[in-house]
Hints:
Structural class: alpha/beta
Strand content: 15-25%
Number of helices: 9
CATH superfamily of the largest domain: SPOUT methyltransferase, trefoil knot domain
Number of strands: 9
Bound molecules: S-adenosylmethionine
CATH architecture of the largest domain: 3-Layer(aba) Sandwich
Amino acid sequence: MRIDVITLFPDLIAQCAAFGVTGRALERSLLSLHAWNPRDYAEGNYRRVDDRPFGGGPGMVMLVDPLRRAIQAAREAAEGPVRVIYMSPQGRRFDQDKARELAGLERVVLLCGRYEGVDERLVQAEVDEELSIGDYVLSGGELAAAVVVDAVARLQDGALNDAESAEQDSFQDGLLDCPHYTRPVEHELGKVPDVLLSGNHAEIAKWRREQSLRRTLERRPELLDEAPLTKADLKLLDA
Ligand code: SAM
């Protein structure tokens, strides 16, 4: 998969993606990541990428043309259909379903706004969808884009060392993940639950499922409306 990011701060994206699972996915060429700076496509001595908003008001708005040229350059840099996504607090909320959907695409372009955002005509003409990472306003789309890159990178085949760990993650099966423990067994803060030490895989799986169900019920009950639950799950929830 190839992700192109349109950003005034290419180094920020590169740094965010350089470590851990994302860094490994890049090293293993499971993902390629490229940044395009609209300033490189701006005109004039000052290479201006923003201007004051029509109608007055505070802040600046990103100009159509430098962004449009940068997106075009990204489109032409490789073959294949491209999904152009504007990172925006006004977009649909990014979630694990969307991460899975994007992870299955060949090419994605992530457009990062700054200032008051980008000229609406650019959004109308070039953008396929808008994605938000939450109901708060960031100063720019870069951290939001880095979130998408990370969530999508870990879903690429071979990105995780233990292939199972993505399957067990929260939201993969519609539920929150169960609690995890590691050594030592006994600690002043408590003991590891006996079942996890039993070696009985069926009992361990049952315990983990129950913990997932309970956590989801306590913390995010609305997820249970959509999660594919078995009769046994419903029984555990009733208990
Ligand atoms: N005036 C815009 C509004 O209220 O909708 C906010 C602009 S914000 C200061 C600058 C840029 O940060 C946006 O263009 C967008 O790219 C990015 N951004 C801010 N919050 C975001 C969020 N929650 N999710 C994704 N991108 C966000």
